[in-house]
Design a protein that fits this description.
The protein has about 260 residues and is mostly helical. The protein has a single domain, classed as MetI-like fold. Helix content is about 80%, strand content about 0%. It is built from 12 helices and no strands. The model has no long low-confidence stretch (mean pLDDT about 85). It is a multi-pass membrane protein. It is found in: Cell inner membrane.
């Protein structure tokens, strides 16, 4: 009996999530009356604004991932190696983006870095892009840090570092050629989550007036009927593709190196 209710709960949950997706997908195929077609998808993909905003968000995601890796991997490594007592405080700081709304963060950025401030980042396109990239990195920080920290738990950081230093390796070599390859799966997991966050984020990009994918989805949804459903299916497919890549990388990646102890 317990097994029956367990499977019933699973079936209910699947229907709760799958039925709206099926309905949205079916609606997106009904742009041509009387038949199913991909006209809505063709219009979305042929729209120059879709191409512009999608490529812009992908570019911002790449820069955000690079910045996040350069920030998080050395920080998590140093905390685990030299500052274990500071770990609870670092984890608390990395969790703050989950409780502070994005609109509060972006208004703080605008207040601090407007054209009349000591660092007027919003006064130029490059400066605004940098500010938006920092905002994306802030939003993805909890996920990137948790992924990297989990990866570092699977290896003996202290022993590997001591072994590398005994062979004359510097800190850059240790991080780039020893630590990073061993936590690559964790880094890629955080990177794919970051990509999904950047592709769907609306608040920061809209308030900073940048041509990102999130504001484009909102604008299209306010003015069209079938195209927003098609765009939502595309965005959902991107998110699930990222999740599938995380699982694929985790399965195909080699096991981390384990030092041999005497």
């Amino acid at each position: 009996m317990k097994r029956f209710w367990a499977w019933a709960a699973i079936a209910f949950g699947m229907l709760y999530f799958i039925l709206p997706l099926v309905g949205m997908t079916e609606f997106s195929l009904r742009m041509r009356r009387g038949v199913y077609s991909f006209d809505a998808y063709a219009k979305v993909l042929a729209d120059p604004r879709f191409q512009e905003t999608f490529s812009y968000s992908v570019m911002m995601a790449v820069f955000t991932i690079i910045f996040g890796v350069l920030l998080v991997v050395p920080t998590a490594y140093w905390v685990r190696l030299k500052l274990p007592r500071a770990r609870p405080y670092v984890e608390f700081v990395t969790l703050l983006p989950l409780v502070i709304p994005a609109i509060v963060v972006v208004f703080g950025y605008i207040r601090l870095y407007n054209t009349s401030s000591w660092l007027p980042l919003t006064g130029s396109t490059l400066g605004t892009n940098i500010l938006l990239m920092l905002g994306y990195a802030t939003l993805s920080l909890p996920y990137m840090y948790r992924a990297v920290d989990t990866g570092l738990r699977t290896i003996d950081v202290t022993t590997l570092t001591e072994a590398a230093q005994s062979l004359g390796a510097g800190w850059a070599t240790i991080l780039g050629r020893l630590i990073l390859p061993n936590v690559l799966v964790a880094v890629l997991s955080g990177a794919f989550v970051t990509l999904a966050i950047v592709m769907g984020e609306f608040t920061m990009a809209a308030l900073l007036n940048r041509p990102a994918f999130g504001p484009y989805m909102q604008l299209l949804g306010a003015n069209r009927a079938y195209e927003p459903a098609a765009l939502a299916v595309i965005a959902f497919g991107i998110t699930w593709a990222c999740m599938g890549l995380i699982q694929l990388v985790a399965r195909l990646a080699p096991k981390p190196a384990t030092p041999v102890k005497d």
